[in-house]
Design brief:
Family: Belongs to the nuclear import and ribosome assembly adapter family.
Number of strands: 0
Protein name: SYO1-like TPR repeats domain-containing protein
Structural class: mainly alpha
Pfam families: TPR_SYO1
Distance between the termini: 129 Å
């Protein structure tokens, strides 16, 4: 029989995979590593629980320092915390471990959150969240009976978890989905909402986390409304009714829930739940004055609350368009708020006609161009007459006119819009006029303008022509005029050099002018301020282009989103201000401005988007021969001949746009080219009648 082997004690072998950490080459960092970093990292792995707890607390304090943080990361602090500190027997050590990770995600880039997710931090969060949930829900002993020190640790750990969850959710959609799918984590969030006497920081972080998770998230929206264990949804409604700063963050969560569940004005949810019930609470919060004592961060907390409230109002203002569409309100015009017109649908469908147009020689005479137009008309899906002439129905497609019927119901059927007009807009106007003396007030003013902008663009998409939606017009027109007189005019009058503010106000002015249909309450020569702003934007853009001599970067004149620039917005405002029944002198001045701009098509420093927008404005202003300006300005001032001369220039502009780099811009340029030909043909057909009327 063989001899049994004796157990031999061998010394622990070094990890063959682990690489020794090289000290930094910088003498200062090397000294810092030796004096502060290595000792605490060593103590963090000490067998003595007191040493580990003290080291974890020390690291939680020094990790906020940039140099210390980078050195700690070099020493593999994250794996140590995940595998050792978070599983420590000492709750103080575990709390410090979560604090370390919280600071790291706050200070590092979003890639660090992805790194943590790949290290399976969500499992550790789930374990901690489950334990904290049980502690908060416990009746033996009740949480309220715990010592203040024990409660503080629970809330400190909870706050760290909440910050981690928010940061992880923002890093990637797949992480957000994994968080929402984790029932223990979701119950933990619901439990904090339902718990009484939650510290303000933890409560706000909980709601901020829920706002992040609930945006466009149907599963979480359903989970919130269906929760019976903590009755989270009922608690949220109670907090909204109570008002105050906390109610603002609650409104953000509920707005996301209502949007995901499609609880709109015409399809409300439980007990009539929709955004209309949130607007009064948010409006009341916007009335809260800043704290008289700016110490202890009170001013910053107030400013944060105001900005969150304004962001939620802006979001509701954007989503209001969905409610209007669900209610079968006519929505003419654009797919996005800064687009005046989408062009012919046929221009997108009729590829053959497009190819013919692009392939034609620039020398072709007017007769050949008319033959091409006849071919395009013959291909239209709706079918035109044999002579394929450009008639009034085609013109309506250019101008965006729409004759859909609308139910003349009361504004009570649109409670969110009613609450906006009656309660939110007065507060927003007031906040756009606050004294800007620091970063907080500047941010509040900017958010207030953005909120007004979103609401007004939604209104501007409603068709008010021929008495359509008269009930909405009656309620909106006074509010729109107040926005112009009390927000837009004062900022224009101040003549600020802040181009960001100018861009914001110009976008708002465009929306207001569109919505008021030629009845904008302009001050004397106020329209000229937008002409001046356009020249400023053009000069600034030219400076940007010429400052870079590299030919490859000359396309900088075409922005990533070319129709969001200040120049396009100035053109849009002017076009809206010149529409019938605007005064003839303003119409003429704007018309000359637009024709001059169109005449510069193809010149260096003139963005194609500006030309396209100017042409679309001309279509809208002079598209109806019934308007006084058609005879008095368009024909008397010879605009027709300018448009005829524009066709070859516009064709060259369209062909000069790189299809791959600027696909949307090229599509719109091609649409504008086709529409210009049709518009010219229509005007030519109606010229004799118009001329006779003016004699």
């Amino acid at each position: 029989m063989g001899k049994s082997r004796k157990n031999r004690v061998r010394p622990n072998r070094a990890d063959p995979i682990a690489k020794p950490v090289k000290p930094p080459s910088d003498p200062e960092l090397a000294a810092l590593r030796e004096s502060r970093i290595l000792p605490v990292v060593k103590d963090l792995q000490s067998p003595d629980i007191k040493s580990r707890t003290a080291a974890a607390g020390a690291i939680a304090n020094i990790v906020q320092d940039t140099k210390c943080r980078k050195l700690l990361l070099r020493e593999q602090i994250v794996p140590i915390v995940l595998t050792e500190t978070l599983t420590d027997n000492s709750i103080d050590s575990r709390a410090a471990g979560w604090e370390i990770l919280k600071v790291l995600v706050q200070e590092e880039e979003s890639d660090f959150c992805v790194h943590l997710y790949r290290l399976d931090i969500l499992t550790a969060i789930e374990h901690a969240a489950k334990a904290l949930n049980e502690t908060l829900a416990s009746t033996e002993p009740p949480f309220a009976k715990l010592t203040k020190g024990q409660q503080r640790i629970v809330w400190d750990m909870s706050h760290s978890l909440l910050v981690l969850l928010s940061s992880l959710a923002l890093a990637r959609d797949e992480i957000l989905e994994a968080i929402v799918a984790n029932q223990n984590v979701v119950r933990f969030l619901f439990r904090i909402v339902a718990t009484e006497a939650v510290p303000q920081a933890a409560f706000e972080e909980t709601l901020s986390c829920l706002m992040t998770l609930s945006e466009d998230n149907l599963p979480l929206g359903q989970a919130i409304t269906d929760d019976q264990e903590t009755r989270c949804y009922d608690k949220l409604l109670e907090l909204v009714a109570a008002g105050g700063p906390r109610s603002v963050f609650v409104c953000g969560v509920l707005h996301n829930v209502f949007a995901s569940l499609q609880w709109l004005d015409h399809s409300p949810g439980k007990d009539g739940a929709c955004d209309a019930m949130l607007v009064p609470t948010l409006s009341k919060a916007l009335e809260l004055p800043p704290p008289s004592n700016k110490a202890n961060g009170q001013a910053d907390s107030w400013a944060q609350m105001m900005q969150v409230a304004l962001e939620i109002v802006a979001s509701i203002g954007t989503d209001l368009q969905t409610a209007l569409e669900k209610g079968n309100r006519p929505q003419p015009g654009s797919a996005s708020k800064d687009e005046e017109w989408n062009g012919f649908e046929e221009a997108e469908k009729d590829d053959d006609a497009m190819d013919v147009d692009e392939g034609s020689d620039d020398d072709k005479d007017e007769e050949d161009d008319e033959e091409e137009e006849e071919e395009e008309e013959g291909d239209d899906e709706e079918g035109d007459s044999d002579d394929a002439e450009f008639d009034e129905a085609d013109l309506e497609k250019v101008t965006g006119m729409d004759s859909e019927d609308d139910n003349e119901d009361d504004l009570d059927d649109l409670p969110t819009l009613r609450e906006f007009i009656n309660k939110a807009i007065p507060q927003l106007i007031r906040l756009t006029n606050i004294v800007v003396d620091d970063d907080n007030s500047m941010a509040i003013q900017g958010h207030a303008i953005s909120a007004l902008n979103n609401i007004t663009w939604t209104i501007s998409c409603i068709d008010f022509s021929d008495g359509e939606n008269a009930n909405i017009w009656k309620a909106w027109a006074p509010a729109g005029k107040r926005i112009w007189q009390r927000t837009i005019s004062p900022i224009l009058e101040a003549d600020s050099a802040d181009l960001q503010l100018a861009t914001q106000v110009t976008s708002l002015a465009w929306a207001v002018a569109r919505s008021l249909n030629g009845t904008t309450p302009l001050s004397k020569n106020e329209h000229r301020k937008f002409m001046s702003l356009y020249q400023v934007s053009k000069a600034q853009q030219q400076t940007t282009i010429t400052s870079d001599a590299d030919d490859k970067n000359k396309e900088q004149q075409i922005q990533e989103d070319p129709f969001q620039g200040l120049g396009v917005k100035c053109i849009g405002v002017l076009g809206a201000l010149a529409r019938d029944p605007a005064p003839i002198d303003i119409n003429r001045e704007v018309g000359v401005f637009l024709m001059t701009l169109l005449g510069s098509a193809g010149e260096s420093g003139v963005p194609p988007a500006d030309i396209i927008q100017a042409l679309n404005e001309v279509f809208d202003i002079y598209g109806d021969e019934e308007y006084t300006c058609d005879a008095e300005v368009f024909w008397k001032d010879g605009f027709f001949s300018h448009l005829e001369e524009l066709q070859p220039k516009l064709k060259a502009v369209a062909k000069g746009i790189n299809k791959r780099a600027f696909e949307e811009l090229r599509i719109k340029a091609d649409e504008a080219l086709i529409n210009l030909g049709r518009f010219v043909q229509y005007k030519k057909k109606h010229a004799p009648k118009v001329k006779e009327a003016t004699q």
